[in-house]
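job 3f2a | input accepted
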Amino acid sequence: MSHAAENFVRGAEMARRLAADYRRDAQSNEIPPALRDKWLADAKRADERADWYETHARMMQ
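job 3f2a | predicted structure (61 res):
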């Protein structure tokens, strides 16, 4: 695997962890619904970014 592909894989892993963190934090009962909705939307965007990184990693191989 090329160095560039490895970087894209690492980027995808980091984005997936970020999405998981947003989803976990959104589960808290101590946050207002508007913030929960924002965090869930941020999690969706992080997943989309991870998909983008994974696609580019495959193209670099």
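job 3f2a | The two ends are 6 Å apart (CA to CA).
job 3f2a | closed
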